[in-house]
Amino acid sequence: MPAPIRLRELIRTIRTARTQAEEREMIQKECAAIRSSFREEDNTYRCRNVAKLLYMHMLGYPAHFGQLECLKLIASQKFTDKRIGYLGAMLLLDERQDVHLLMTNCIKNDLNHSTQYVQGLALCTLGCMGSSEMCRDLAGEVEKLLKTSNSYLRKKAALCAVHVIRKVPELMEMFLPATKNLLSEKNHGVLHTSVVLLTEMCERSPDMLSHFRKLVPQLVRILKNLIMSGYSPEHDVSGISDPFLQVRILRLLRILGKGDDDSSEAMNDILAQVATNTETSKNVGNAILYETVLTIMDIKSESGLRVLAINILGRFLLNNDKNIRYVALTSLLKTVQTDHNAVQRHRSTIVDCLKDLDVSIKRRAMELSFALVNGNNIRGMMKELLYFLDSCDPEFKADCASGIFLAAEKYAPSKRWHIDTIMRVLTTAGSYVRDDSVPNLIQLITNSVEMHAYTVQRLYKALLDDISQQPLVQVASWCIGEYGDLLVSGQCEEEEPIQVTEDEVLDVLEGLLVSNLSTPVTRGYSLTAIMKLSTRFSSVNRIKKVVSIYGSSIDVELQQRAVEYNALFKKYDHMRPALLERMPIMEKTATNGPAEIVQTNGETESTILDTKHLPSITQPASQANDLLDLLGGNDVVPVIQTTVPTKPASAGGELLDLLGDLSLTGGPTPTPAPSVPMSQPPFLLDGLTSQPLFNDIAAGIPPMTAYNKNGLKIEFTFERSNPNPNIAVITIHATNSTEVDMTEFVFQAAVPKTFQLQLLSPSSNVVPALNQGSVTQVIRVLNPQKQQLRMRIKLTYTHKGSPVQDLAEVNNFPPQSWQ
């Protein structure tokens, strides 16, 4: 058989291939020749063939058929064969394949070989792909080589010991005696690998961490010698002596000094020397400075040293290298909470990074800018961030708008400034704001009584300019409906009033109803606003015509609103002024995240056991306002209809359960309630009384946890209905302890046939992460027979991009809730 071609010739041949197919053909032909050689047990050219096979493997072609040949080369007595064999084992074998266990005995023999280079090959292979079984069998040989005087073997043995500890942590104590003299070695290679070994042991064992803290002075001395030593061509990199060893020592010092006063005190001086003496003109110096900064921030360092570290990061922001600027911004973002004033000194440089072309730098600069906002710089920072919002890419607008909303809510110097800022965001990036921005702005405007005329005038002007930003249009429609009389009367004192007629206002709102840009939710806001203006404008006949037209709309939501409003003009016209009067001031509940709006009709909201109460309604007009709130538009989440009678003529005597697969059985069938005459369908306002709907939370009914799984927690609190004590009112509070919002959240419930259940609209369909807010929803349960309450719940939401659905049964209701 002719001699196979050499590796160099194979490489040259493959590189002449013009197409992928031609290269594949060459590889297949050569692989066939190599297989034939392997079958013939050709020992002469086995080394050459395996070398060629490794090159093909690096090109991405399969080479697994050469695994056993690698073991044969390892068993050879020739160094050249062993070298290729061990290299092939590291590339082609791993611990998932049983073949690797066959080489354990060969590695053990080579670790005791008389030639250091053969020992080095065995150490490299064990440290690269040794399994836990191999590490247990060979740890004694590695520990023995770690104590040898040969620096070539000691550095390789130290790295191999790191791999052994990672695979079998309980063998860590075996290497403890060998570490005593490692740091006294003069060879930089041994020092480097020794520091790596000590770092691994400290990270994996608190006992080792305490044991090695006594080495801090020795590490400080080594680092000082590296800084003060003169030029050494063997270790010099861009004018700095062995920067790799310096970085490793700084990382080990960071681990040893964290949470320990004495160790931190011992390394303060050397860290200051490294920070001030390291050359920053080359990337090597910047790497050392960055590790120094991380070490200073992690240990219990002096305040002056921390300021020095932040100033180094500030200098990094001025560097032309984008990677260095990104690292600086990320590090400042981590330290801004603990050293806020020191980071504030670099505010102008951070804001300049918002103009960077690199999207990663812009995002980090935006996050850091929001972290720097406080009451003293709110105006200047908001000016810069609004300018950034104008010009940034679409992927930044949602986060930027949300950050501006939160900062303005927390630090606004005046209500007018707050309103102007949010309106600027809505006009600039209205399509990107979060769902809760519309009700939040409506709450802000409602509470700013002195700003009503100014706000409605600004919003009306914005509507004339642009109706494409749906959140802006929704807020403007709501405000025009509430304060349209102020707009027409021209009572604005903050700026020059505009002359607007009633017909012009109605023209704008009717234009929103027919515009192709308007979403169904926006049309609902507009129709409700037109209805409210029937008590503020004199053009009642025109408004009646608009409302009647949409009574036959193909949009069910719009049609329902129009039919009910039309009934207000006819059957309930005497109640219309009271129902459509202005909304009272809204109050917020205290939450950790974005605040929720809770309407209390001007009454003080009481809190027991951190549970949010429903408002007590004491007057018919206030009750009408609550009803109007349900009908009229500042609730942007559609109501989930869950109370559908199973028979047309029944008023609800059957199971009110939309969850078809969740029907519960058990209990006698109740007597059907009197049927409602079908000639006159029941209207939403029928039965409106002046009694309060709910009383305060009944004393002695404790809240309960109904569901707690995968970070989602559902709690129930209980109330009683005053008009009917057989009705239990349950308020659910959904919270999310994970790090990612739960979106598209839907809560559904079913009860046995002896009960009737009504599910009202939830406060939101997004459960904020990290318990920074909650979603609330009210359930009304009619229990005329006073039976023990049982419920089955169905939860649907999207988390980290994946849909989640879960079922649960709740049978442990407090007796006070159903007795």
Automatic annotation (TrEMBL):
Pfam families given in the database record: Adaptin_N, Alpha_adaptinC2
Where in the cell does this protein reside?
Answer: Cytoplasmic vesicle membrane; Endomembrane system; Golgi apparatus
UniProt KW keywords:
Cytoplasmic vesicle, Golgi apparatus, Membrane, Protein transport, Transport
Question: Where is each GAE domain found?
Answer: 699-814
Q: How does it sit in the membrane?
A: Peripheral membrane protein
GO terms for cellular component: AP-1 adaptor complex
Q: Which Gene3D superfamilies match?
A: 2.60.40.1230, Leucine-rich Repeat Variant (1.25.10.10)
Report the principal subcellular site. Answer: membrane
- Statement: the UniProt record of this protein carries the keyword Protein transport: yes
Name any Gene Ontology BP term: intracellular protein transport
Q: Which InterPro entries match?
A: Adaptor_Complx_Large_Subunit, AP1_complex_gsu, ARM-like, ARM-type_fold, Clathrin/coatomer_adapt-like_N, Clathrin_a/b/g-adaptin_app_Ig, Clathrin_app_Ig-like_sf, GAE_dom
Protein family membership? Belongs to the adaptor complexes large subunit family.
**What is the name listed in the Swiss-Prot or TrEMBL entry for this protein?**
AP-1 complex subunit gamma
